[in-house]
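Researcher: Next entry in the queue.
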Amino acid sequence: MIERFAKQTIIRLSQQFSVVAVTGPRQSGKSTLVQETFPDKRYVTFDDKSVRELAASNPRDFIKAFKDGVIIDEAQKVPEIFDALKLVVDSEDYNPGKYILTGSSQFKLKKKIKESLSGRIGIVNLLPLSIAELSESGILGEDAYDYAFNGFYTPFYDEKKHFDREDWFENYIDTYIERDVAGEIRVSNLSQFKKFIQFCAIYSGQMLNMESISREIGVSANTIKSWLSILENSFIVHFLEPDTNNLGRSIVKTPKLYFVDVGLLCYLLRIESKEELLLSRYKGAVVETMAVAELLKSRFNKGRKAELTYFRDTNGFEVDVIADWHKTYALEVKSDFETEKKQSANVRKYIELRDTEIKGYVYYLGDVTCDINNIKYVSWKDWGVN
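Model: Structure for this entry, 386 residues:
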């Protein structure tokens, strides 16, 4: 069994908040994790139509029927449950960790949480498996490109399940559009939305060009902006905003887009094998996407905000990632297997330009993590560990 690092964060929050929500993309392991974390707590799912109808008919009584608390899976499918939870929590004695919610449609969850449960709820964003989790469980292999190609969704690492990769991702996209997206956009636009996701894949690791996407898909720039928000809120993509420290020079103001899972990215790019990935013009973008995703997982598993940006000025000087955590880190991602001084050139230049202490990192595909001339070269096996 793969131990999920977010488990300790869920326990920590459950000792403080009456309600804890675990949200994230489909197939990231939310339901399994909360049931393992709270094995003695009753579990219900609103995927079950009869349970959903029962809860919607009298949500407050439904909640009060579970005197010892309850795990509610796919809670966003009964929006009335959030107001009922607020009333019940406010009427009871303080009882942290009594109610546990999960949901994969975060744009619906966020709205209801903000309206009804603000200040009463702790939230954990659970992404697919991390390299560190696979390593800790003793099942991490030796080839980074195996993981870059296949990705990190939990079903691929369940020894009881055997999926054809292409079949699985095709079904994943269809299910995502039918269950999570269909209620957010016009039905007539669903086929265009699928084309939109595929087109976004070529921008992973790059600055957004909404006008280009708009022209290609044939919808307005405002629609593209709305659709990008849907992808972000359902954990399909993540955006890095430009670093606000301009160091006395003009900087770009366009965010960079990254897919949260590289397996899904490779599928959308129509890369059909690891060998094809190695020869692909997208290889560098896929590796960079994997690195950024591991940083996100590390932060989210701890219950923290991403706090990741990137630096690029109008002359083209760029540093892939700036992480403003307990310290500031300047980080470059390279698809090389050997440590070379030129890999750290941009990081070193950025450190020289800043007047505060900054740690320089290079994420690369070698097997050894080491310090060379005050720059830390981090093996792919240690990505996200900090």
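Model: Residues 96 and 233 are 27 Å apart (CA to CA).
Researcher: Noted, moving on.
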